[in-house]
Structure formats: structure tokens, C-alpha cells
Amino acid sequence: MVKKFDSLERIKRLDPLGGKGELESIHLLTPEEFKGKGRMFAHNYLKPGSSIGLHTHNKDFEIYYILNGEGIFVDNGKETKVSKGDVLITYDGESHALKNTGDVDIEFLACIIFS
Questions:
Q1: Is residue 13 within 8 Å of residue 75, measured between CB atoms?
Q2: CA–CA gap between residue 56 and residue 37 (Å, rounded)
Q3: Which domains does the chain have, with CATH numbers?
Q4: What is the reported pLDDT for 60?
Q5: CA of 110: how far to CAs of 29, 32, 42, 92, in Å?
Q6: Which pLDDT belongs to residue 97?
Q7: Of 25, 46, 47, 93, which is most buried by a Cβ count within 10 Å?
Q8: CA 65 → CA 2, 82, 86, 89, distances in Å?
Q9: What DSSP string runs through the chain?
Q10: Could you give the dihedral angle defined by the CA atoms of residues 37, 39, 45 and 48, in that order, rounded to the nearest 10 degrees?
Q11: What span, in angstroms and rounded, lies between the C-alpha atoms of 16 and 12?
């Protein structure tokens, strides 16, 4: 299967998950394409000064891969600077948030897989 770029679903969210600012997402897989194994695989752009609010994963886990930009990742209450090439993992029952502290978008891939 090949999914052409122009056919992918694009979503803009304001104040994502209780954060602030804007997140743009290009959904690379639909939940149905996960065949019951997960619910999201997306290419994301978190605008400068924006954040994804703190949230907890239940019955799934999430992986971020940072492609560009820099920010602060909140991992179960602990803040860590992150940038290009970093892999961020939030397991079932854990919480996380992401803040863009730079002057360009944080560009990242995100995948949510069921536990």
C-alpha cells in the first residue's frame, strides 16, 4: 500500500490536551490501519511557544521521535531538554507533556500503541 501525501488527514488543534497554542498533525495511519494494535501514528508540528498539556496514558503507550526543534519534555513530573534525534517514551500509566521553548516548530513523529 502507498498513501500519497496529498491524501493524508491534516488536523490543527488549539490548546492540545490542555496545553497552549497550536499543534498541526498529519495522520500517517488511521486507527483501522493499526489492525487493533494502536490508534495513532502522526507527523506533528508544535508551534513556538506552544505546548501539549500533561496527560496520562491508560492501556496504551506513546513514542515521540524529535525531527527538528527543541523544547522541554515533562516525563512523570521530571523536566528534560529535548532536541533533534531524541526518542521520548511514555509507558502505560505514565504521564507526559511537551513544551516548545525554541523559535521554530518542534517537528516530531508520534505513535500510540495499545499495551
A1: no
A2: 19
A3: 9-114 (2.60.120.10)
A4: 98
A5: 11, 17, 5, 15
A6: 98
A7: 46
A8: 22, 10, 6, 9
A9: ----GGGSEEEEEESGGG-BSEEEEEEEE-GGGGTTSEEEEEEEEEPTT-EEEEEE-SSEEEEEEEEE-EEEEEETTEEEEEETT-EEEE-TT-EEEEEE-SSSPEEEEEEEEE-
A10: -110
A11: 9
The share of the chain scoring above pLDDT 70, in percent, equals 100
pLDDT of residue 49: 97
- Contact assessment for residue 70 and residue 82, using Cβ atoms and an 8 Å cutoff: yes
What's the mean pLDDT when you consider all of the chain? 97
**Closest Cα to residue 98, out of 13, 23, 14?**
23
Verdict on whether the full-model pTM lies above 0.90: yes
pLDDT in tens, 34-64: 999 999 999 999 999 999 999 999 999 999 9
Residues 102 and 83: their CA atoms lie apart, in Å, by 10
* Nine cell digits for residue 94: 505514565
